[in-house]
Design goal:
YefM-like fold
Length: 133
């Protein structure tokens, strides 16, 4: 997602002085350290001297309007690609399932899949939930 964006950044890109960076080897050897650095701000991942990606922290305690928008965009993209369920994408975006459903619908992204097996499973889950309410 962001890597494609960074491919358009000129090789002479100068990172802001307060932005931390890691190289690919550091990221591979100690990914937890790279994630810890994101608490202070975005971390630039370098391949040689060229920017390859940006790591950003999405923790709710450090949420900003910018972070919330990024979390929502990420959740939508992962849901749309089928990599994440509706409920999980709502949790990633820090919104309710109904708010996520509304947002996806406004974007023209179908919330119900075309797989009949999934529909039956969804209906059973809904019936169980209604019975327990």
């Amino acid at each position: 997602m962001l890597t494609g964006f960074l491919r358009h950044v000129p090789p002479t890109f100068v990172r802001p002085a307060d932005m931390q960076s890691v190289n690919i080897r550091q990221l591979k050897n100690d990914p937890a350290e790279a994630v810890r650095k994101t608490h202070d701000g975005p971390v630039l991942v370098l391949k040689g001297d060229h920017p390859e990606a940006i790591l950003m922290h999405l923790d709710a305690s450090a949420a900003t309007a910018e972070g919330d928008g990024l979390a929502l965009a990420l959740a939508v993209a992962l849901y749309k690609d089928g990599a994440m369920s509706l409920g999980r994408s709502a949790r990633v975006a820090r919104v309710s399932v109904s708010a996520m459903t509304t947002h996806l619908s406004r974007l023209g992204i179908p919330v119900a899949g075309a797989d009949p097996i999934d529909h039956r499973a969804d209906m059973q889950t809904l019936e169980q939930w209604l019975a327990s309410s």
